Amino acid sequence: MKKLLIAAAAVTFAGAFGTATAADVEAGKAKFAVCAGCHGPTGAGNEALKYPKLAGRDAAYVMTQLKAFKSGTRDNATMKAMTAGLNDADMENVAAYIATLK
After folding, report:
1. What's the pTM?
2. What is the mean pLDDT of residues 68-81?
């Protein structure tokens, strides 16, 4: 009986976490609408304007870069301003969404 309860709890929590991940990607997609102004709606970037391609980047890389822009350890005035209003959860959501772009 104890094993059955543990298994049921595991399935319940796995479903809850799966939903949270989907919500994070959707929240990231909503925040990415601002990013799309420069990086394009598909994350393809704009070579002529020197806006880099984001599609194909993994979430960990994107998160590292967003934190670096926000803290100022990576120098780019535009990106520092763009990340100023984002909290860690926002950046994680955006990074998760960008990781879905191919």
Report:
1. 0.78
2. 98
Give the C-alpha separation, 54 to 86, whole Å: 18
Q: What is the CATH number of the domain that holds 61?
A: 1.10.760.10
Helix, strand or coil, per DSSP, at residue 72: coil
Q: Which residues of 10-24 are buried (b: 16+ CB within 10 A; e: fewer)?
A: eeeeeeeeeeeeeeb
pLDDT for 98 equals 98
- In the numeric block, the tokens 């990106």 are attached to 79
pLDDT in the model for residue 59: 97
pLDDT of amino acid 11: 42
List own/partner pairs for 50-59 with CB under 8 A and 24 or more apart.
54/98, 54/101, 55/98, 55/101, 55/102, 56/101, 56/102, 57/98, 57/99, 58/99, 59/92, 59/95, 59/96, 59/98, 59/99
Q: Is 62 within the bounds of a domain?
A: yes
Please say if the pLDDT value at position 7 is more than 60: no
In the block, residue with structure tokens 């967003």 = 66
